[in-house]
Give the backbone structure.
Amino acid sequence: MTKQKRLIMEIIRECHENRVHPTAEDIFFEARKKLPNIALGTVYRNLNILSEEGVIRRLSVAGNPDRFDLNVMTHDHLVCSRCGRLKDVEIKGVREAIKELTGEDILSYELNAYYVCNDCKNEEVKK
Ligand SMILES: [Zn+2]
Ligand SMILES: [Zn+2]
């Protein structure tokens, strides 16, 4: 593993511990503190490789940059429609419900539920 890749994994792990789903730019910003010469392209390339290897999960949210998740198990997300931050949430029985409706075995699914997070709600109160 290159030192760039190792550092990127470290940052993603740290984010995961803080329940944060970072964007490539967030990771780039953190990575530069330790490897000032790292290029944004290197961060993107490593994130692509790690996603393809199934080490991390890429999360696509319409109108927002992709975010990355160390938790590759199926779980759902609450997405703040203001700031785009994600929060893990496990909604049980979705797979079974789809199977019941369609009669098909569901391999995987992605569910994003949109809301306004507390930080953004508090911002609004201050205005
Ligand atoms: Zn928010
Ligand atoms: Zn997640």
About this structure: The two ends are 48 Å apart (CA to CA). The pocket of zinc ion (ligand 1) is lined by residues 80, 82-83, 85, 117, 119-120 (CB under 6 Å). The chain has a mean pLDDT of 93. Residues 1-72 form a domain with the Arc Repressor Mutant, subunit A fold (CATH 1.10.10.10).
